Amino acid sequence: MxxxxxxxxxxxxxxxxxxxxxxxxxxxxxxxxxxCEVKSFPGxxxxxxxxxxxxxxxxxxxxxxxxxxxxxxxVNGTYGPNxxxxxxxxxxxxxxxxLGLFSGILGGCQWVLGMTPWGLWIFAVMVALAVGMYLSAQxxxxxxxxxxxxxxxxxxSAVGKEVKID
Length: 166
Hints:
Blueprint: E1 9-14, H1 18-31, E2 37-41, E3 44-48, E4 59-67, E5 73-81, H2 83-112, H3 119-143, H4 145-159
Antiparallel strand pairs: 1-5, 2-3, 3-4, 4-5
Helix pairs in contact: 1-4, 2-3
């Protein structure tokens, strides 16, 4: 269960209204509370690895439940890390991307003007950092693959059908 995507996801439809779908998922998961924790809000369910089994790269499964027709619910599931880790990667990419953009523009201007393009060295470092962050995220996915598979199995058993991850 790994993907080149930063946040693997799936979409499928349940033949229940939104509230019934949420109750079915939450009810089935809570019956086996030792396998995962569940947080439930109207239109949203989050499945997490129990506290004692969590590590830095542990995943969570966020389920968005949207009405699709009269008695049908579209479930959008997204696997991802803890919110704190996701925020650190988000801000890391934001900083590296911004510095890379501006240093690339500066280096390009320096080059066109016939100056020493030292801005391109900073740009190269930012590209290397971005690649390093991406590889780090992929490494984390590999470490968390077993727990991600466990969450997926729990979800599939809760809805009673096989769901393919995109």
